[in-house]
Amino acid sequence: MNRTAANANVKTSLPGEKALSILERRKQIIPDGVSYGIPTFAHKAAGALVEDVDGNTFIDFAGAIGTINVGHSHPKVVEAINKQAEQFIHTGFNVMMYESYITLAEKLAALAPGEHEKKVMFLNSGAEAVENAVKIARKYSKKPAVVTFSRGFHGRTLMTMSMTGKVKPYKYEFGPFAPEVYRAPYPYHYRKPEEISDEAYEEYMVKEFINVIEGEISPDQVAAVVMEPVQGEGGFIVPGKHFVKGVFDYCKKQDILFVSDEIQAGFARTGDYFGINHFDVAPDLLTISKSMGAGVPISGVIGRKEVMDAAGPGELGGTYSGSPLGCQAALAVLDIIEEENLNERAKRIGERTIEFFSALKEEYECVGDVRGLGAMCAMELVKDKMSKTPDKELTAKVISEAQKQGLLLLSAGAYGNVIRVLMPLVITDEQFEEGLEIIKESLKRALESE
């Protein structure tokens, strides 16, 4: 493959000499359960480029699993972190408060959908945010049950594993799980019966959702329904407005809280601050994390004032929750999204990605589906278009080939056969196009090796 003025530059085998040495040390000290995507170690990163310890440079289409929407080590984020560290690193908000926590909460409440009054609390990880949303919903409603959706992913704690739909690798042999967690079906248009129209399919899926609640639980026992506006680990599956609105309307009718899990879809990834904004509903609670802090651990729950106030003093929080470094990083992220117009940038990235993937679909029998919302895009690989049999092995080969050519890439989906892209939204056009071409070349090489 001939790429002039290439940004990706892999000069060694993977792993290289230095990485191999560190990898051997890893094997001796790190549990096998802690996985890795590429057999090398980062040395430095900026924007959409990552350099490893052996001097290889990679274009990042993984974004630390959707954490780096504003890019690696954005100067404004670095400046904000450094300035805060010079003042103080941590006091514990539950011990001595700091203004940045308040300022960030005010800004996020103003950005969140809905005209109702809102309050905000901060935590450390996406799983913690979801876990606390469940706590808050139960406290407010005095009801025990929580409903999530097939293929959904919500975290790795006991509660969030219970809520997650994919067994391997997230839940296998880690049970028993938390009680009063139920799962409803979520639309998967690519795999619906072809004779059913999109509208009829969505209507059917709403009815199936209602059947789960009314047939297996009873509406007066359901505290909350938790939905990803676009399923992340589930395969970047985008529901239709009819389904989302149908679920939301039923929740309102039955006094069930609607929770939008924005961990992966938030902070400009879909072309808006929150993925749920595309569906014309205003959730009672939103969970946020990942790109919120540009790599600094921070998460949060945004919700209706009366719901958020249900818990009493001391019932919510944690030692590091909403750390000063995380708050300042998140404030910088919000400034960057606005100043660099990243919501619009995400839309343009998404349009180009869908166009590129669609061309691959026309050319290759193995590209079964292309889908996405904003810059949250994916293509699903299958044995052939007729059978739609998932091709997990081909997907793994494509990702391996991409790594060899200097592209960090991720898979997803219930069958492990979806290639998803989560490149920083600040990626240059040159880097972006080069990354797309690497995917095309990697697909070609993977097919030739079969």
Automatic annotation (TrEMBL):
Report the enzyme's class at the first EC level.
transferase
SUPFAM superfamilies from the UniProt entry: PLP-dependent transferases
Pathway membership? Amino-acid degradation; 4-aminobutanoate degradation
Reported cofactor(s): pyridoxal 5'-phosphate
Matching InterPro entries, A to Z? 4NH2But_aminotransferase_bac, Aminotrans_3, Aminotrans_3_PPA_site, Class-III_PLP-dep_AT, PyrdxlP-dep_Trfase, PyrdxlP-dep_Trfase_major, PyrdxlP-dep_Trfase_small
Q: Give GO MF terms, alphabetically.
A: 4-aminobutyrate:2-oxoglutarate transaminase activity
EC nos: 2.6.1.19, 2.6.1.22
Alphabetical keyword list: Aminotransferase, Pyridoxal phosphate, Transferase
Which reaction equation describes what this protein catalyses?
(S)-3-amino-2-methylpropanoate + 2-oxoglutarate = 2-methyl-3-oxopropanoate + L-glutamate; 4-aminobutanoate + 2-oxoglutarate = succinate semialdehyde + L-glutamate
Q: Does the keyword NADP apply?
A: no
Name any one Pfam family assigned in the record: Aminotran_3
Q: Which family does it belong to?
A: Belongs to the class-III pyridoxal-phosphate-dependent aminotransferase family.
Q: Which NCBIfam families would you find in this protein's record? A: GABAtrnsam, PRK06918.1
Name the UniProt record assigns to this protein: (S)-3-amino-2-methylpropionate transaminase
Which organism encodes this protein? Thalassorhabdus alkalitolerans
